[in-house]
Structure formats: structure tokens, C-alpha cells
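Give me the fold.
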Amino acid sequence: MLILLVEDDLAQLEPLQAALLQAGHIVDAIADSETAQWLMSQKDYDLLILDWMLPRTSGVALCQQYRQSGKTAPVLMLTAKDTIADKVTGLDAGADDYLVKPVDVVELLARVRALRRRSPLWQGDLLSLEALRLHLSTLTLECHQMTTQLSSREFQLMEYLMRHPRQVLSHDQIEQALWGWGTEPESNAVTTLVRRLRQRLQAVNAKDWLETIYGMGYRLQPPERDKEMGSGE
């Protein structure tokens, strides 16, 4: 998922971001509400994780602004406030769930998985394209009854390609989709990642699925033989 994480305490922001990245998510990790407001207006997130006690504009106010803009992605509030009245305030502002600090990473990831199922963009734990299947919960790729384990970054690229099948995706599009706000990938990062993903695809006899469209980018395109096999299943 594409997640906006807003937490002004870097000692808490960084480990939460690391855990979400390790789970295969793409994370824009922000420490100030002004940048968060701008990103909320510019990008379509699958999930927002907002600290309640942000300076200037609180997480509750951000949640209210987000809902008033008409956006419906789930919102998880992080808060030291644990009274019933505080919880009601957050829920009334449009939050879907809350987590009391200090945050336990295992519980956070479980809440994220639960909220992901509420997202309007949620398509289930399995993405399929002809004979190719991507298991979102285990970060595994399956084709022709063979499976291979993907790294977090390989999984992110594979998911992005499978959500945009048969489309030519440029280097810039892939960078914007896979690298979070403020992160500058190396000049050859996309090329290197594509090469690694092709190795994973080769392990399941699907290397030919990922095409290079010279001068334009890359495309996930089922070869004719796989279309025929997929239609016969």
C-alpha cells in the first residue's frame, strides 16, 4: 500500500517507517503537518497514519480536512490519549482506528492489514494476471506451479506492474510510485530493480513477461503461450 505516515518525533517516525517498508509498503514519512497537508492534496493514499499531537495542525484536524476533501482511505490515529472521550473525538473526526502510544510494531502491522481490507482500492490478498499470481500477504510470486520469494522492493515493483498490466510505465512513473517523499533514488535504481525482478520471474519461468520498451519504459505483458495456458485453467 501507499501510506502517509505523519509523526513529528523522529525517534518514533523512523522505526515505524522501517517496519512498514519491511512489510512491503511504500511510505511517505513526514514530520510536519504542512508537508502532510500538501501531500494529502496531491496523492491518493491507501492509508493515512497520523499522530494526534502534531504541532501547528493536529492529526485530528488533518483527518477532518482529509475527510472534508471527499477522500475515503482509512485513517489510523496514533495517540497518547486513551480516554473514551478522546477516542470518540478521533472517531468523530473521521478516523477509522486508533493505536495508543508507545506503539507496538507487531500490533501496528496487524492494524494496517485490517484497515487495508477497508480501503476502496483493496483488491484482496491475491493479484492475478493470466497464469501469474502475486500473494500480497507473503510477498511471493507464483507461476506455472512454481513460487519465488520477493524482497520488499521487488514486491513493490511487481505489485505496481500488476496493477497496471499491459501499460508502458516510464522510469519516472516507477520512481514516483516506489520511492517515498523526499527519497532520491540512484540514477540506475529502476534499471537495477527491473533486472532483479526479471531474475525472480525467471525462477518461475516467466522472465518474458516483463518487456523493455526502448526509449519509453517497461510493460508487464503475458506472452501468448501463457495466455493460452491461463485460459485453459
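Residues 228-233 have pLDDT under 50 and may be disordered.
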